[in-house]
Amino acid sequence: xxxxxxxxxxxxxxxxxAGTAAGNEAEVYRARKPVFAAIFERSTAEAFGERGAPxxxxxxxxxxxxxxxxxxxxxxPDHPLANEEGVVFYSNVNPVAEMTDMMDxxxxxxTNVEVxxxxxxMQQSLLRLGQE
Length: 132
Prior knowledge:
Blueprint: H1 2-16, E1 21-22, E2 32-41, H2 44-47, E3 56-66, E4 72-75, E5 87-90, H3 95-131
């Protein structure tokens, strides 16, 4: 869930800066993308050479990197941020792709919440069985 939260925050930042402009390439906002890694954990029993509970896996955020997509260059000589050639540089954020990514991340987050709710319900049912 933490990884999806980072993903959603990154998308929100990208969408907030989608229309930003600058007079040179160095100052313009570049889209950011989180980099994930799957972390596989061995079970305690396996660590001691026994067969036991299956190992688990988790997702970890390694870094948030800038997109390498090209910036949008527009000739607008009357724009207050235009450089000496009349060019304005706009962010490389693609709002349609970001919205699609946001819907995917929101669904993944919702799925994680639902799974946690079901695990909690199963644990409560198991405790009730022990009381009977």
